[in-house]
Structures are given as structure tokens and as C-alpha cells.
Specification:
By secondary structure, the chain is an alpha+beta fold. Helix content is 31%, strand content 27%. A five-stranded antiparallel β-sheet has the order 2-1-5-4-3. A five-stranded antiparallel β-sheet has the order 7-6-10-9-8, with helices on both faces. The relative contact order is 0.05. The N terminus is likely disordered.
């Protein structure tokens, strides 16, 4: 079958115009047209006067055909025979004629089946365009006057019962229907250029005074005569309001997907919702969040935003607001709810906010429903007299209420539709997920920071022997948790311990292990163990930790540690390390060196003997302790890191404060995007002045107790501490007596004046002293008990030659 086409003149073939034959009353051919000759191949001389039945492919059908014609059925298909005998399917139309002499004639018009089908399709096309098609079609002449309309346009009612023919759209269109100037400009453009304008979106109001606007798709097509001159315009208009609204909602949904939730800040997320909604979706938008959600920040205890999924007595706080309407001023002159204020009107009894939060359903109020709000603000808080559409959407995530969002329209004439409600719920749901994520992030971060504060020292002690500073940078900025740690521990005799450690891994597991190791180091430090001995005990403790982990042992496989003890009296520092990087020493003249200290294996291997070393440190020297995260990275090995660290410390001024040294090391050495925890501890050494301590050797004789008291009284007088003499003499007397009775030679007495007064008595025995409560009949046994009552603190430390019992007294001021 051929495609539907027009002939060369742009016209459809006329039915019956292909062949015409005139028959007399006896059915003989009375006239034979050229079309018939072309269709069947017979010249006129061969058929004139002969029966027409001979032209049928089956002559026996002639009687039946005649009877049909006589019965009034004068149109239908026939099969004729060409001159060569081939059958030809045709469609015939028969008209009865009466000649002047009264004799009946038959005018038979025929068209080939192909031509007829082309005609039928063309007629169906025209009928579809002007009768059945739902599009509105208007025809205009070159003077922009109406010529015709199809039935769909007439049924639309815009020009119903109006005589529109010969009038322009400006004369006929109701006020506010559309922009007439723009329409006429488009018509003139098509007339001048001869090019069609397709799918122009036009906004208008088909019903005068209606607030609902419509969007039409308009195509203007030029109509030409056979010479190609534009003689008319055809307007094809269809209602695409639903398509445009769907597209706008899709664009807004995509916009919300990219603009809402860009940060983990609750206030910013609420602002993003309001900014997305105004002005494309609403003229004004208010976002309120539950006070429990907004207050769940770093200063809280990490609780959930609400204990109940639907709080009974919620407090809503304005988190964001955008757009301006008269509704910003509540009725009765109440103050405007500003960002950060509690929205008290939203939670009064009977407020739709409470119902929305309780049921989890949106509330839509329009026109007549909003009139009571003018006198009762509980009906629609914030809705002023100009607001004609008010939409409240509860904000829920995981079934938990987080807040509400209110959308209002006043300037836009469109009311919220059901599809708008679905879109608002979709956007608010996305916002709720972002708010919930932000709230969870803040809770997790708060918990992590609280844990970190409990695991790491927030304020380093400030003993007179050292001036310290530190920096800690976890690999995860989110949690702030890691396995690195540092500590400064005051010891007896004005000494101080400096510790840096690194637990393998990151996150919570490493942080917990680190906290336990730090606690163990502090406990072992109280025993005044040497660095090597302390690391041996810490290694045993680490093994116990790993045994407790069981199947989780792969998460934390070990740790490294560096432990140093500095004595300001001797200005000696004892150090030992377990698989940890060596410390750096920066002398007062700027020389930099790394301590040649046996590395030892990491903690957790068991059965390891650690070695220690003793170095002398002058006043003003810097001891730099750090973890390997400061030097190692994917782009840099440890040796290169040590070399860069030496160069950095060499450039640092010798007078730089410890904190400045820490900051310089982190700034210059830390690789960008570091993936390991980093801890740095810098200590500037300061020994005690020679006149701040004194040592005496005491012979192992009873009368030497009195001698020790006299020496003590004389020294306290030199220090201007005569008022402390009685207590101090009593302490020295009891400690020396205890050494004579239970210890052994050599016996030494040392007094140290620091921020406190320290008395130390050493002897050659390692027997542990015990405090006991003497009975009334006992002659002795009250010495150490008396010291516990007189001294601020006391204890015992052991060395290779025996032990030292010390007692510390506070000084005035």
C-alpha cells in the first residue's frame, strides 16, 4: 500500500474522478470517458453500445449488481476486467439520471482501490484534525483574523456561541486569557519568514478571574497556495499544564537532591530546604526543628534527639526562614518568630503542628479553610490575610519526629495541588534524612570527643623540671579517635616521666587499647620503675590485653612506646623504647641529634628484655618525642622523614617555645591527607639550682638520728623555712630511724626544695616498708604511720643499691 500523499497540486484525488461511464436503461455503454480508457485499456469504439456486464471480471455478477443499485446500494467495490483479461479492483459510485426524453440513465464513477484508499486515509486525516483530535486548531488569514476552528476548540468554550469569524484574537479573547501582544508578534514572524514556530509554551487563564493558570503548547504553521505563498496560519494548541508542572516538580526534586544536605550542620541543612523551596515552590517557607534535635551538640551527652518517636510536649525552634509574606507578622501584634527562637504558637494545644507530628501526616489549608486563622492563630500559625495556600509537612526519619516545614503561597496565584503535597513530602523527607544524619554525626562526634578527652590529657602537668607542649592529630577528623598517646607524669624527687606511644590501627578499638596502656603506664610509673623495667611490665600487660581480645586480636596487633625519666638534680635522663622511633635532642646552641637508643621490639611479643640508656641534658635542651605518623607516609619512607625532621629542627630558633616547635614540626613534616595518627611531645629541660638541694651521708649509728635533725634544721634556716623545721625534723628523724633499724649502710639523707619540700632517706636494703597501726603497749611501729599524717605524700622507690623512702611536704604559697 502506498503512503498517503498529495498530488502535484497539493490536493487529494476526488472520488470517482479516475474513471466515468454513462449507461443506458438496458445497461449498455452510452458514454466512455478517458479515465475509463486509462483504467481498463478499452478505447471508446470497442465498448460504446455494448453491455456493461462485459466489463465485469465475472459477467454472471451483473444481475446481482443491478439489483443492488435498484435497492439503493450504489457504492461499493467491484472487480472489473482489463482489456488483456487482468482483474482490477475498483470502488464505484452510481448516480441515477433521467434524460430529457424520460429515459433512465446511470452515471458510474470508479476509482482504483489504491486511489480510493488514499482518498479514505486523507479524509480520515482531515476528520481527525478537525473533528476528533483533542488539540485546539484555529485558522487565521494573513490579517490575523479568524477563519475557522475545529470542533475541539469550539467545545473548549472560550468562543462558544460567539461569532468569531473575521475577528482577531485581540477582539475576541477574554481579558487575561493570554499575552495578545506576544501572540500577534509570533504570528507576524511566521507570516514574514514562512517558518513554523513549534511547541511554544504559553501561560494563560482560560477562565476569567480564576487563580489557576494553564500552560499551552502552541505551534503556528504557515498554509500555502499552489504557488507557495502563505495565505493563512494554522494554530495547533494543546494543554500541557500537567506536563509542565511535572517537569517543574522534577527539576525542583533534582535541585533539592543536589542542594540539601551538603554539610553535616543542622542549621545549614534547614536553610538549604528553605532556599530550595523559595521562590520556585512557595512564596515563604519556615523550618522548625525539635529543640532536642538542635540541642544535641558537642555540649550534650550523646543522647538520642527524642526519647519518643512522637513527643507529647515538643518544643519547636525556628531553624530557617525564607520568603516574605504578611504572615510574618502574627495576628494580634505578636512578635515575629526569628531564627533561633522557640515557635511557641506552633505547639499550643490545638495547633496543627501537634497533630501533624502525632499522626505523621501533612496538613493542607486553602482559601476558606484559612479564614479562621485570622482570628485564631492556632489554626495556621504564621498565615496572614494574604496567604491563600498553607502546607504543613512533618519531618520524620526512621519513624522519629525531627521537626516541621511550612510552605505558604500568597503572591503566586496557584494553590497547592495534591502533586505539590507529594513533592513537598519528598523534599522534606530528604531533608529529614540529612538532619538525622547530621544529628547522628554530632552525637557520634560528641561521644568520640568525650572518650578522647577521657583518654588523653587535656592539660599537661607543669613540673618545674620541664616545660612541655604537645600536638595530637587523629587520622579520622570525624571521630577524633586514634591509637597514639602522650603523657607527662610527675615522679618523686622532682623528677618527671615523658611518654609517647602508638597502638597499631585507628578508631575506637585502638583508642580503647591506648587508654588502657596509658592507665597501665601511669600505674607502673607510681612504682618508680626504671624505663626498661616499666616497658617489660607494659609488654606483659599488652599480652594480657591481646589475650582478652580473642578472635579480635587481628584488629589490634601491638603497640610501640618510648618512656623517659628526667632527674633535674643530676640533669640525667634515662630512656628506653619498645619499637618506637628514637627521640630527638636539640641543644641550646641549636645542634640536633637523635638519641642512639636500642630500638627493641614492639609491645605484645612477650619474653623481651628492653635496654635503656642514660644521657645528660643541659638547661634549655629540647627533647622531642613523636610517633611515626609524623614522618612516614605513602610518598615518604621513615629515613627520609628523619632527615627532614633534622633539617626542620635545625632551622628552628633555639629560643623557640615548645609549642612553637610542635606547630612547626606538624606544619612542615605532616604529609597532606595523612592517614595515620600523629602525636608530638616537646620538653625543654631545666635542672634544679645547686643550692636547691643538699645530700648528707649518715653513719649507721643511733646517735646519727640527732645529727640528721640538726643538719635539717640548719638547712631549712638557710632556705628561710624555719617554720617548717619541726615537722621536717620529725619526718627526717623517723625515716633515718627506720633505715637504721630495718635497712643497712650506706644511708643518705637528701633535702630538695622545689615547689614542695622533699625529704629522701636511702639505705642499702630492698626490704619493703609497711605502715601499721601500733598497739598502745607497743614501744615502736609508729614511724611510717606518723609520716602519713605529717606529709602530703610519701612513697618508696628501688634501685640497684637498695631503696629510697621519700616524703613530700607542701610549702606556704
Amino acid at each position: 500500500m502506498r503512503d498517503i500523499t498529495f498530488d502535484g497540486r497539493g490536493e487529494l484525488p476526488e472520488p470517482g474522478g479516475e474513471a466515468e461511464v454513462l449507461l443506458d436503461a438496458q445497461g449498455r455503454v452510452a458514454a466512455w470517458g478517458p479515465g475509463a480508457e486509462a483504467l481498463l485499456g478499452h478505447p471508446a469504439r470497442e465498448v460504446l453500445g455494448r453491455p456493461a456486464a462485459g466489463l465485469l471480471h465475472d459477467p454472471a455478477e451483473a444481475g446481482r449488481v443491478v439489483r443492488r443499485w435498484e435497492d439503493g446500494v450504489r457504492q461499493g467495490p467491484l472487480v472489473l476486467r482489463r482489456r488483456g483479461g487482468e482483474p482490477v479492483e475498483v470502488q464505484v459510485w452510481v448516480r441515477s439520471l433521467t434524460a430529457a426524453d424520460g429515459e433512465q440513465r446511470w452515471l458510474v464513477q470508479a476509482a482504483g482501490a489504491e486511489a480510493y484508499r488514499t482518498y479514505e486515509f486523507g479524509r480520515a486525516l482531515l476528520q481527525g484534525l478537525f473533528t476528533d483530535i483533542p488539540f485546539h486548531i484555529d485558522l487565521f488569514d494573513t490579517r490575523q483574523r479568524f477563519i475557522a476552528q475545529n470542533l475541539a476548540q469550539r467545545r473548549a468554550g472560550v468562543f462558544r456561541d460567539a461569532e468569531y469569524s473575521g475577528h482577531t484574537m485581540r477582539e475576541m479573547a477574554p481579558p487575561g486569557l493570554l499575552d495578545i501582544d506576544a501572540l500577534e508578534e509570533r504570528q507576524r514572524r511566521v507570516l514574514e519568514t514562512g517558518k513554523a514556530l513549534l511547541d511554544t509554551e504559553v501561560v494563560g487563564h482560560p477562565v476569567p478571574g480564576s487563580p489557576q493558570d494553564y500552560v499551552w503548547s502552541e505551534s503556528i504553521l504557515p498554509l500555502r497556495d499552489p504557488a507557495g505563498t502563505v495565505i493563512a496560519l494554522a494554530h495547533v494548541v494543546s494543554d500541557v499544564t500537567h506536563r509542565v508542572r511535572s517537569r517543574e516538580r522534577l527539576v525542583l526534586a533534582n535541585e533539592a537532591g543536589t542542594r540539601i544536605g551538603t554539610t553535616l550542620d543542622l542549621w545549614q541543612t534547614a536553610r538549604e530546604l528553605a532556599e530550595v523551596a523559595v521562590p520556585w515552590f512557595a512564596d515563604a517557607c519556615h523550618v522548625d526543628l525539635l529543640d532536642s534535635v538542635l540541642s544535641d551538640r558537642d555540649d550534650t551527652d550523646g543522647r538520642e534527639p527524642a526519647d519518643d518517636a512522637r513527643p507529647r510536649h515538643p518544643l519547636l525552634r525556628r531553624a530557617a526562614s525564607d520568603g516574605v509574606t504578611a504572615g510574618d507578622t502574627p495576628p494580634g501584634g505578636a512578635r515575629t518568630v526569628r531564627v533561633g527562637d522557640l515557635d511557641t504558637a506552633a505547639t499550643v494545644p490545638g495547633s496543627p503542628f501537634l497533630a501533624a507530628l502525632a499522626k505523621g501526616e501533612s496538613v493542607l489549608l486553602t482559601d476558606e479553610q484559612l479564614r479562621p486563622a485570622a482570628t485564631d492563630p492556632r489554626r495556621a500559625p504564621g498565615a496572614g490575610p494574604d496567604v491563600h495556600s498553607w502546607l504543613l509537612v512533618p519531618m520524620l526519619a526512621r519513624g522519629v519526629a525531627l521537626g516541621t516545614a511550612v510552605f505558604m503561597r500568597s503572591r503566586s496565584p496557584r494553590r497547592f495541588e495534591p502533586e505539590d503535597v507529594l513533592l513537598a513530602e519528598q523534599i522534606v523527607t530528604r531533608t529529614a534524612v540529612c538532619v538525622d544524619n547530621a544529628s547522628r554525626y554530632h552525637r557520634e562526634r560528641t561521644t568520640a570527643r568525650t572518650l578522647r578527652r577521657s583518654l588523653l590529657p587535656q592539660h599537661l602537668p607543669s613540673p618545674s623540671a620541664v616545660r612541655t607542649a604537645s600536638r595530637y592529630l587523629p587520622a579520622s577528623e570525624h571521630t577524633g579517635l586514634g591509637g597514639d598517646w602522650f603523657d607527662v607524669i610527675p615522679l618523686s624527687g622532682a623528677r618527671v616521666a615523658l611518654v609517647v606511644g602508638d597502638v597499631v590501627g585507628h578508631g575506637l578499638q585502638s583508642a580503647v587499647t591506648m587508654g588502657r596502656l596509658r592507665g597501665a603506664v601511669r600505674t607502673l610509673a607510681d612504682l618508680d620503675l626504671s624505663p626498661a623495667e616499666l616497658l617489660a611490665h607494659l609488654d606483659d600487660q599488652m599480652n594480657r590485653f591481646l589475650d582478652e581480645r580473642g578472635d579480635e586480636v587481628s584488629l589490634v596487633t601491638g603497640a610501640t612506646c618510648l618512656y623517659a625519666v628526667y632527674d633535674p638534680v643530676s640533669r640525667l635522663c634515662q630512656l628506653a623504647r619498645a619499637g618506637h622511633p628514637p627521640p630527638a635532642v636539640v641543644t641550646a646552641d641549636g645542634a640536633v641529634d637523635f638519641v642512639d637508643l636500642p630500638g627493641g621490639p614492639p609491645l605484645g611479643l612477650g619474653g623481651v628484655v628492653f635496654e635503656e640508656r642514660e644521657i645528660a641534658l643541659a638547661d634549655g635542651d629540647l627533647l622531642v618525642l613523636y610517633t611515626d605518623g609524623l614522618l612516614e607516609s605513602r610518598a615518604q619512607d621513615f629515613v627520609t622523614g628523619l632527615r627532614r625532621m633534622r633539617a626542620t629542627l635545625s632551622r628552628t630558633p633555639a629560643s623557640a617555645a615548645p609549642q612553637e616547635v610542635c606547630d612547626t614540626l606538624v606544619t612542615e613534616l605532616l604529609p597532606p591527607g595523612h592517614q595515620d595518627d600523629v602525636a608530638v611531645l616537646v620538653a625543654r629541660m631545666r635542672g634544679l639550682a645547686p643550692d636547691a638541694h643538699v645530700t648528707w651521708e649518715i653513719e649507721a649509728q643511733e646517735q646519727m638520728v640527732r645529727r640528721a635533725r640538726e643538719l635539717t634544721a640548719r638547712q631549712l634556716a638557710r632556705w628561710g623555712l624555719a617554720e617548717e623545721s619541726f615537722t621536717t625534723e620529725l619526718i627526717v628523724s623517723e625515716l633515718v630511724t627506720n633505715a637504721l633499724r630495718y635497712g643497712g649502710a650506706p644511708i643518705t639523707v637528701r633535702l630538695i626544695r622545689d615547689r614542695s619540700l622533699i625529704c629522701e632517706v636511702s639505705d642499702g636494703s630492698s626490704t619493703s616498708p609497711h605502715v601499721r597501726r601500733a598497739r598502745d603497749t607497743d614501744e615502736g611501729g609508729r614511724g611510717l604511720y606518723l609520716i602519713t599524717q605529717l606529709a602530703q605524700n610519701w612513697g618508696t622507690r628501688y634501685n640497684a643499691r637498695g631503696k629510697t623512702i621519700w616524703a613530700e611536704q607542701s610549702l606556704p604559697g
